[in-house]
Amino acid sequence: MTNLCVEARDVTRCYKGGRGIKGINLAIPMGRIVGLVGANGSGKTTLLRAITGLTGAEGDLRVNGLNPWTQRGQMMEDITFIADTAILPRWMNAAQILDYVQGVHPRFDRTKAERFLAGTTVSRKMKVRQMSKGMVVQLHLAVVLAIDARLLVLDEPTLGLDLVFRTTFYRTLLEEFASEERTIIISTHQVEEIEHILTDVVVLSEGRIVFQEALDALEERFFELRAKPEREEEVMRLGPVAEWRSLGQGHFLFDLAKPAGVTAEMIGLLGEVRSPRLADVLVRLMEAARPETAGVGEWGHTVKENKQ
Ligand SMILES: Nc1ncnc2c1ncn2[C@@H]1O[C@H](COP(=O)(O)OP(=O)(O)OP(=O)(O)O)[C@@H](O)[C@H]1O
């Protein structure tokens, strides 16, 4: 029995013009909370739809050990997939939605959902169209948290919500759903909002995975150096993976995994070193992976003027 929740080997779904996802290799162990990050059109939704069996693809894909295309019915008993929290049928009231989920999902615990809703402002008789977006999220959370699934797939679940509801959504998810036996995959554009709950991050660019790493390892791997102009030539010789300017000062991102031989101590001799923000690392890596910005080195260099 495998302890991998998602295992993808060379998964490819090509649309016209070479768009889609290409050669995806992924191994997500059970119990992880994975952030799927990438620019618009990078393939996040396509990958999540393949994982949930909604989109066909070439290659090998196993979800909880099952084939999403030939064993979808059985596979979905253990998965909850939310494409958008705003899609609940507007003409139904909260109680009818719970009736519906109870009818279609064998692992739905109605009592648990009712208990969760009792602590919110959503009443059982209220129709979805009468609810604010925040209330719809509460209702959605009640459904999600009451389904005893081993994999929860969320495709930009908090789009269009205000900060308070976004924060509540993720906090509740972490407190009420996450466990060692459950895996969560969340696609998002706002990685800084969820980085505190993630264990891993996967970055897509133009349909390919350009980076995947556990967050713990990321902290050990990446350093940001602010160097004085007179030291910049020396800095460049150490092979930063990206560089940008802010208020005239050069910022250099180093990945200690490449090139081999560079250490934090060597970097520290050339200026002020700090841990970069995750969002900064990911944005620089995504920029560097794009053909129009890629330059020297495996990731390429990006030189950007940051006006802030
Ligand atoms: N059914 C389809 N037919 C044709 N092209 C498609 C289809 N679905 C997706 N694509 C293309 O595949 C690429 C990846 O799309 P996808 O929706 O997976 O990206 P995404 O990363 O989720 O984007 P966003 O962040 O904007 O939601 C895009 O270029 C898109 O136009």
TrEMBL record:
Keyword hit for Nuclease: no
Keyword rRNA-binding: no
InterPro entries reported for this sequence: AAA+_ATPase, ABC_transporter-like_ATP-bd, ABC_Transporter_VariousFunc, P-loop_NTPase
Record protein name field: Multidrug ABC transporter ATP-binding protein
SMART domains: AAA (SM00382)
Species for this entry: Neokomagataea thailandica NBRC 106555
Domain ABC transporter, chain residue ranges per copy: 6-231
Organism domain of life: Bacteria
Keywords of this entry: ATP-binding, Nucleotide-binding, Transport
GO molecular function, a single term: ATP binding
Taxonomic lineage of the native organism: Bacteria, Pseudomonadati, Pseudomonadota, Alphaproteobacteria, Acetobacterales
